[in-house]
Amino acid sequence: MIEYRYGFFQRQESFCFLAQVAGKIKKPNFTKREKARDFKVKWVKISQAISLVDKDLPLTYKGKCIQLRERVFLEEVKNQIG
Questions:
Q1: Which domain holds residue 48?
Q2: What is the pTM of this model?
């Protein structure tokens, strides 16, 4: 996906990969910075992921760009998996 963030005069290319879990789900290996920010992994169905993104209310231009990008990726995944 190519985004043009006019507020930052920026062209950004983003990539998304669809994968399937093989074997047992293991504990995440967060960086120190991620741990300090209390990151968590939440496994949900695609429809719930879309709902979570839709319910987010970003306040910044950057946040709104990220939300839109994630929504587009999730919709494409939903289309791919049926």
A1: 42-82
A2: 0.75
